[in-house]
Amino acid sequence: MNRLTRLVSAFALAAASALPASAQQMLTVICPVGGERFQFKDPAPLASRETYLDQRPVDPAAPWPHAKCPSNGFVLYKSSFSDAELARLRPIVATDKYRALAATHTTHYLEAVLRRELGESPYAVAWALVQATWEAGGDPARYRQYAQEALATYDAIPLAALPEIRHRILKRMLSAELARRLGQFESARDRLLEMRDAAELSKPFLQRIVELQLKLVRAKDSRPHKIPY
Q: Are 103 and 56 in contact (CB under 8 A)?
């Protein structure tokens, strides 16, 4: 597994044992679109396994942005792209529309844009948008935009379309969390009550999260909170 692949998976894995900043390396990256060479700092592993309810790591080093080609704004959200994928993405990245997005939005939002253009799964697009909300935490308007898009994308995915139980659980948990963070308390409550009675969310750990979420909804609390371990 190379460093760029580790970058893509670091947020979900929340690895421990952080390295000091001095141990981080500057990588020479070649842009798959255009061949431009540029420098990118290799992210250090995360220092804590703790996460917020939206899965954002508590470690202040997170979220780490994707490598982004300086000239055209292409983001390297995975370690390699097929020839067919690059043939599809090159004309898109060259458009004024994409250049405008690249000048404004976070790298994970751009990942969602590119995944959509490639016709990738809505679940992968929604997860990229969730990670974009992590990058936009200091900008309420940008956060709301990304959270609304992520919630709408999750809501458009039928549970039956997700064969893996972990994906079904994350879709439901993150949808409820996004609704709460957006101040949609009635919607969040309804989602959580349904989840509380769902067999696949019956594990005590998941039930503790649901009960915490219901408590926050009753208090009309839309702030970020940590997962109760």
A: no
- Domain boundary (122, 137, 157) is at 157
**Looking at beta carbons, which pairs linking 123-127 to residues 24 or more positions away fall under 8 Å?**
123/157, 123/162, 123/167, 123/171, 125/153, 126/150, 126/153, 126/154, 126/157, 126/171, 126/174, 127/170
Average pLDDT over every residue of 221-229? 95
Per-residue tokens: 213? 């979420």
Same domain, 144 and 175: no
What range defines the domain where residue 30 resides?
3-157
Q: Band of the pLDDT at 23, cuts 50, 70, 90?
A: low
Residues 20 and 89 in one domain: yes
For the segment 73-129, what is each residue's pLDDT rounded down to a tens digit? 999 999 999 999 999 999 999 999 999 999 999 999 999 999 999 999 999 999 999
122-135 helix and 140-155 helix, angle to the nearest 10 degrees: 160
Residues 55 and 99 in one domain: yes
Burial of 229 (0-12, 13-18, 19+ CB in 10 A): exposed
- Type of residue numbered 186: E
Amino acid 2: pLDDT:
36
Q: What is the pTM of this model?
A: 0.88
**N residues, the chain:** 229
Cβ 62 vs Cβ 11: under 8 Å: yes
Higher pLDDT, 41 or 229: 41
Question: Tokens for 95?
Answer: 């458009």
Q: Which of 114, 139, 157 delimits the end of a domain?
A: 157
SS3 210: helix
| Coil, strand or helix at 41 | strand
